[in-house]
Design brief:
mainly alpha; extended; 75% helix; 402 residues; three-stranded antiparallel β-sheet; Receptor-associated Protein; 3 domains; 17 helices
Length: 402
């Protein structure tokens, strides 16, 4: 049961407000008021309920959003009302967090809110692209088509994210394994040799002394590492929130060694696909660029998007505007030019993004082939250096015996 703040009108037309507790939904509230001869004008859940669910978006997976878009598109195309469609998905959902979001959206619509405003209240769950497509579908009377396109788009975005994560997964796994091996050596192997060195009474070389010192810190001063980790964590959060530093970091990601090309391709793919989908849904070019820059989530591409907006507003073609920036592959520019000439810009750009996604897949596979042996060599080199530092005093001792 929820608590609602409401505004109603009595049979004489006088408005009054109040709070209604232990009511299931707005529909029940409306029925209860009508029984008393009053008409509901507006209602909303108390703000405390929203505050309790401020982190609710963290419990909702992207796969649930994709499935929701497909289900809603299917039911709307079959002639079901949007309220009934959302209510059906709400009842079928097994995730309490998603149930709450859908319930809040449905109740907002029932009390007169537009679809755009109802979904935008939960912008942490539904992206700017999804809200934009909802708005375009609602305005153009093609809601089911807009929802289906949104689902297809979100599915492709999720697939790209999975591929990119796969590219970074191997280095991360090998790195963690290397840290685990080195930590085990420092905790269990090095102390044994340390006692042996004391018995041999030999002059320890610099690498061995450094190794013993690191082993001591790991065993006896491990707690000192925790503040360093905490500082690094909060420093990263601060960098993300600082607009200037975030912009510098975004530029670095596009130009970083090894992964820079892949990052550029992914950002361009996100930007162009969002722009293409918005245009195909009937959104203006300028509005489509604004939403695409938000979805791309990169300061550099946002800067380029603003320049593209100014260029297009002055009458320049999309292709000519894209050509001014090296970040857009020639294939995208050429297809945009062909699409503008034939009047099928969104269709041609969609083909261009599909080609770019296949290129991303090829680059990821190529990176994995190069990274695997490099990471293996790095891990072997680190373990080898540790073992060399361990056995150097032994070799020195044996040479003195001879």
């Amino acid at each position: 049961m929820a608590v609602y703040e409401y505004i109603a009108r009595d049979d004489k037309g006088t408005r009054f407000s109040g709070v209604y507790t232990d009511v299931e939904n707005v529909r029940t509230l409306k029925e209860d008021l009508s029984k008393m001869g009053d008409m509901l004008v507006n209602a909303r859940r108390q703000k405390a309920s929203v505050r309790e669910h401020k982190d609710i978006h963290k419990k909702i997976k992207s796969d649930e959003i994709i499935a929701f878009a497909y289900e809603l598109a299917g039911m709307c195309s079959a002639g079901m009302s949007i309220v009934k469609s959302i209510e059906t998905v709400e009842n079928q959902s097994e995730n309490p967090a998603f149930k709450y979001v859908l319930s809040d959206i449905r109740e907002s619509i029932e009390t007169g809110s537009t679809l755009r405003n109802a979904f935008e209240k939960h912008k942490e769950v539904f992206s700017a692209f999804f809200v934009g497509m909802i708005e375009a579908g609602e305005t153009g009377g093609k809601l089911s088509e807009a929802l289906e396109k949104s689902a297809i788009y979100l599915e492709k975005q999720a697939e790209i994210k999975r591929k990119v994560k796969a590219a970074f997964a191997y280095p991360v796994v090998v790195g963690v394994l290397c840290i685990a091996v080195v930590t085990a050596l420092m905790l269990f192997v090095i102390p044994v040799f340390s006692k042996l060195y004391q018995q041999l009474r030999v002059q320890l070389p610099v690498p061995t002394q450094a190794l013993l010192h690191i082993s001591f810190v790991v065993r006896e001063r491990w707690w000192a590492v925790l503040p360093v980790i905490a500082v690094c964590y909060f420093l990263m959060k601060w960098v993300r929130r600082n607009p200037y530093l975030k912009a510098k970091w975004d530029v670095f990601k596009l130009n970083m060694p090894i992964f820079g090309r892949l990052n550029r391709m992914v950002v361009v793919s996100n930007f162009v696909r969002t722009f293409t989908m918005m245009v195909s849904a009937g959104v203006s070019l300028i509005r489509a660029l604004e939403i695409a820059s938000v979805v791309a989530n990169n300061a550099k591409i946002s800067e380029i998007a603003k320049e593209l907006e100014r260029s297009i507003e002055t009458g320049n073609p999309v292709a000519a505007s894209l050509k001014n920036y090296d970040i857009f592959p020639p294939t995208i520019v050429q297809l945009a030019a062909s699409g503008e000439e034939a009047g099928v810009l969104s269709e041609m750009l969609s083909k261009g993004v599909d080609f770019l996604d296949r290129e991303i897949d090829r680059v990821i596979k190529s990176l994995l082939l190069k990274i695997e042996p490099v990471m293996t060599l790095i891990m072997g080199a680190i373990v080898g250096l540790i073992l060399t530092a361990v056995y150097l005093p032994m070799f020195d001792y044996l040479s003195h015996l001879k």
